[in-house]
Input
Amino acid sequence: AQSVAQPEDQVNVAEGNPLTVKCTYSVSGNPYLFWYVQYPNRGLQFLLKYITGDNLVKGSYGFEAEFNKSQTSFHLKKPSALVSDSALYFCAVRFKSNYKLTFGKGTLLTVNP
Amino acid sequence: DTEVTQTPKHLVMGMTNKKSLKCEQHMGHRAMYWYKQKAKKPPELMFVYSYEKLSINESVPSRFSPECPNSSLLNLHLHALQPEDSALYLCASSQDLATHESNEQFFGPGTRLTVL
Output
């Protein structure tokens, strides 16, 4: 079975500092990996995905994520956080043989001015 | 157009009411999904339609009744709901149910449902 773990319920960073939101996955084979962001009272917005190739994936709003196969991780990063980045972030995994998305529990990111 | 729209944005209903949620996309997608999301929790898959036919029902109670009248529209009919059904209901679409790498899901903004 595929599963995703986001070990931190909350991450707090100061504006201008780098941020990392962690994600690890457990699947057999090579999955597709996604990050979505959800602002308050809004739906999910796609940030980026890893399919194959370069382990560093660049996405929307200056976010990037690094795929690490040996550690089965797909951490979301941004070099300089903005207050407007404060939101709920979901990591998701999909088997290459399955259309279903499995979401992590979410990490609430708060960027303090 | 890469947008999924949902109406209404907010809905308050009593336990005896009948209401419907609507979802629309004009991306030519042939797979559409309903998710339920409780506050600060991940979305939970409810139903999947593929080419206007119901493909997946994730053991959802019959008080939720999905309908796909055409390839662009997806409805969720609600009847005799319970207060615990209060949640954000998200619609999503994807090209189809094939598993190729570019087949990602696009989400709508959701309908915030409150059952009194």
Remarks:
- DSSP finds no helices and twelve strands in chain A.
- The longest strand of chain A covers residues 87-94.
